[in-house]
Amino acid sequence: MAVTTFGESVKRTEDPRLITGRGKYVDDIRLSGMAHMAFVRSPYGHANIKNIDTSAALDSPGVIAVFTGADLQEELGGLPVGWMLPDLKQPPHPPLAFETVRYLGDAVAVVVADTAYQATDAAGLVEVDYEVLPAVVNAEAATKDGAPQLHQEAPNNVGFDWEVAGGDYAEAIKDPDVIVVKERIVNQRLIPNSMETRGVVADYDAGKGNITLYTSTQIPHLVKLLFSLVTGWPEQKVRVVAPDVGGGFGSKLYLYAEEVVAGIVARQVKRPVKWIESRSEAYVSTAHGRDHICDAEIAGKKDGEIVGIKVNLYANLGAYLSTFAPLIPTYLFGLMLGGVYKMPNVECKVHGVFTNTTPVDAYRGAGRPEAAYLVERMVSRFAQEIGRDPIAVRRKNMLAAHKNGRAVTTGVMYDSGDYKANLNKALEIFDYPAFRKEQREARREGKLLGVGISTYIEICGMAPSAVASSLGAGAGLWESSNVRLHPTGKATIYIGTSPHGQGHETTMAQLVSSEIGIPIEDVEVLHGDTDQGQFGTGTFGSRSLAVGGAALFNSLQKVKAKTHRLASHLLEADPKFVTFENGTFSVEDIPDKTLTIQEVAGQAYAAANLPPGMEPGLEEVSFFDPQNFAWPNGTHLCVVEIDPDSGQVKVQRYVAVDDFGNVLNPMIVDGMTHGGVAQGIGQALSEQAVYSDDGQLLSGSLMDYALPSADMFPMMELDRTVTPSPSNPIGVKGAGEAGTIAASPAVMNAVIDALAHLGVKHMDMPATSEKVWRAIEDAKEARRAARSAARARG
Amino acid sequence: MVTSSFDYFAPTTLDEATSLLSRYRGEAKVLAGGHSLIPMMKLRLAEPGILVDIGQIDGLSYIREDGDGVSIGSMTTYREMATSSVIQSRYPLLADASSKVADLQVRNRGTIGGSLAHSDPAGDIPAVVLAIGGSVVARTRRSSREIAIDRFQVDLLTTALHDNEIITEIKLPSLAAGTGTAYSKFHNPASHYAITGVAAVVTISGGVCTEARVAVTGAGDKATRARRTERILRGKELTPAVIRRAAERAAAEVEDTLNEDIHATAEYRVHMTQVHAVKAIEAAVAAAG
Ligand SMILES: Cc1cc2nc3c(=O)[nH]c(=O)nc-3n(C[C@H](O)[C@H](O)[C@H](O)COP(=O)(O)OP(=O)(O)OC[C@H]3O[C@@H](n4cnc5c(N)ncnc54)[C@H](O)[C@@H]3O)c2cc1C
What pLDDT is recorded for position A131? Predict the structure, then answer.
């Protein structure tokens, strides 16, 4: 029996279940009479549907029904957008396409059969007559005259134009001392690969008219709300359950077509239906991430002072607006362009563009990795241009430490941070001068070594609801908790967040244990079932502890207040003299007058002797809405070695110093950082979604989409600074995305540093072997040309 | 992804297996480790109506020194070859290449027979066996024949095997004294198959290369001998300059069928084939002692 404390590395209590195959995922749910669905998907990037012949499929063994988009047009409605922008174009997004398909994988029909095999066989027999149309996959090209048009509502395929500015960039660069460095920066499209693909089981209760959706999601409550809004199904008759969920990385943060279709089809066929996404299907039907084409400028003076940054971004939205698509490349990107620097002038324009590709939405970091990559790459690029050390340039421009709010150029208020402390600590661990010496020696031997740095900051703790709403949020972004102490003093809590790998069953129980002094194994953590507890927002944007943990903390304070009052009453002592420590109430100076919280809980239910006016029972709910966001930040340093023969990049060393505010469970936070850095390295070195010009996905499976593997990583050296966040009562900031945000610029800066002496200044991700090899060859070629030109002159 | 439906047989004797193949000729496919066939079936790139699983047949998995060579049963797995002391001492490149195939799960299932029969253009083992030399023993219900490895790989995913034949054994010749071997692979970052791989078997006698067999995989449509490279090596003292010159011709035989994909252009494949030819030949020379 262990009472845990805040700051202790408690082992993950969910792991024995999850790693021994005793978790319960959507695919583990088998209901009696359950039928299976298979989707018929477009093999083209863009086409008109001329005809769909379902007769052969209907005759196929085991088939119960086949529905086309036209069949269910009324019932299905259109998929919603959860974030508004001024003048946002919202073309209809039917869950099953009719008339036109707009991306490879766009679903056009669904087959329901007794088994998944029969459904898949029959899906292959649905004959769709397509008229293939010209396609466009590149966001910038899609805005040009003559480009194929996706939606009549969005001329030139532009879904929105958005901008943010602070200071006056145009004015600032008029100063003759100011140097402007320009670069085109592409942040490639990524494909999320959660271990568990998506899946849904829909169970229709014909007697009551209720529907239960078991779905692999990060946001069960929002799925319930959005499903009900889209289909008109009364919200009280909709139950959504997110059972164990095997990862998401943001890709399970939306209402998806298949969830809506499953609910409606279950009602049509009056049987439970199941759909489990295959990995190949996931590659086209689950939202992608990133995909930015950016023209960037950074301006500054010879002494290293940076005066501003300017960005013109084409953000690829894919074929339709996914739930949070308008938010990601706008606020979560543009507001972060000041980085940890004074950056007095910022100018940013964003064009959200429809293309014939899978919809793009949040992916681990969501807008912030794109921003941090751009800023950190451009700062290092600027340092290279003026011939100064990238660390010295950063130090010169860095914001001073602050504890309680610091307004920045983009209009937001950073919460707390000591950016130079991160930098100093990282440099101390790293020993920068020693590395530069090693690098010089390595170069003499023909070896290519480079160091890269990123000093990032990101916006987390989403979100103050009133602020979010003023920026376009379609729902409140607070979080909730319910704490129920049973008569035996054990606890069941229901949290509004919805873990899918983060370890909430451990950390939330740990918080309960540390606050009210009951053993951690006495706490049952419930989540993800909308019938089991109050509404919650969900798990994304590193928010669960900073917002959900704060909500839990507040419920626990209410429990403490009530038990304190009851204990004082029972102990016949003035509450002023009753203290609470390690789960025990005692009266000052009277050693044997004590009551445990378990005893007090029993009395709360016995209700035999309650203070006047106190209600029986012991259950408290809190809804926490933060006053500000939380802003994790840090310094990451990375060493790469490049093999000159192949161009292959190997990460040799990785040092990370992060400020996540207070840390509840250091082991889990380290794990988050490891995973995040791994994903960032993956983006920097190997991952990329590639479409052909006509909209075929060339990286359509794990055989071609290069996820990073363990042999690509060194042991990571992690450390921390702590500036508690004033945005929530427990002073935490969020750690889920930081690694991803920091790592890709650190790695790419290292790659460029390794090649800088050859004259290389920029390279887009991923730094694949061939790309690096070509950069080396091109640099050699350029030097040869320069030499012979010099000879010719001389 | 789920496969289309098929009938499944698990014979326990070779006779039964070959009979099934004859009876369902054209419809039936042999199933060995399943690590090429099943993925293709799941993607519905292959839809055989009948699978004849040869995994239940006793006596197809062995590594045997006989006469002056070594015979390997067709159901021998990568893992068994990688960890076999016979293979490690007599054909180090085969042990090494086997240990570089994919990951442990695949190596525990994938077989030498399957990898040769499948003849993936980026497979490791076809190039290695080609560099060693030797032959493939194939059996039908009525007869058995030995196919020289040089005539075995015919085209992309195509071998000299008939669809009623089962590979039972791979025969490898003894390597002459003074022979060194090596396999050098540049892997695809996603699939870990070879973007290019070079297998070299080099015999040195009196300081001069008396025999060289070099084979390339990944670059072209099938594993191919680099005969021009071999010719440059033979009869010479293998100085770094000679090796470099020979390696420059390593991709010559696959020039007309060069692969090109999102991981490597044809030009880069040629370059990397040359780089790995140098590495493989240098290592083989070093091992020759
Ligand atoms: C994730 C992954 C990564 C991989 N990476 C690599 C890699 O890096 N390098 C590499 O070389 N390979 C790689 N492979 C392929 C692997 O090596 C396969 O196992 C091998 O190619 C086929 O062997 P198998 O025993 O699994 O054959 P199967 O898949 O069972 O069969 C393959 C084909 O050969 C036929 N066949 C099999 N055995 C016989 C026989 N005895 N007689 C006649 N026909 C037969 C089958 O009918 C079928 O057409 C990878 C596979 C996977 C799944």
Answer: 98
Structure tokens at A498: 């919805």
Residue B62, token pair as written in the block = 């062995």
Please report the ipTM that was assigned to this predicted complex. Answer: 0.94
Residue of B nearest to A773 (CA): B268
Residue A578: strand pairing partners: A587
Residue A690: closest CA among chain B residues belongs to which residue?
Answer: B262
The structural domains of chain A, with segments of one domain joined by +, span: 31-133+195-247+252-285, 289-462+628-782, 478-624
pTM for the model stands at 0.96
Would you say domain B63-172 falls under CATH 3.30.465.10?
yes
- Tell me the CATH architecture of domain A478-624: 2-Layer Sandwich (3.30)
Q: Does B189 touch chain A (CB under 8 A)?
A: yes
Query: Which chain A residues are closer than 8 Å to B44 by Cβ?
Result: 124
Select from B42, B60, B106, B217 the residue to mutate for testing ligand 1; criterion: most ligand atoms less than 8 Å from CB: B106
Residues B159-171: tens digit of each pLDDT: 999 999 999 999 9
Q: What is the largest CA-CA distance in chain A?
A: 105
Per-residue pLDDT, averaged over A533-561, amounts to: 97
Euclidean distance between CA atoms B276 and B260, whole angstroms: 18
Host H or E run for residue B203: strand B194-205
Distance CA A377, CA A348 (A): 16
CATH classification (class only), A289-462+628-782: alpha beta
Pocket of ligand 1, beta carbon within 6 A: B 29-37, 39, 54, 74, 101-102, 106, 109-111, 113-115, 117-118, 120, 123-125, 161, 166-167, 191-193
What is the torsional sign of CA B183, B188, B192, B195? negative
Q: Tell me how far apart the alpha carbons of residues A547 and A463 are, in angstroms, rounded to a whole number.
A: 8
Query: According to the model, what pLDDT value does residue A233 have?
Result: 97
Please tell me the number of Cα atoms within 13 Å of A659 on its side-chain side: 34
Contact A717/A654 with Cβ under 8 angstroms? yes
Instruction: Kindly report the CATH number that applies to the domain delimited by B179-288.
Output: 3.30.390.50
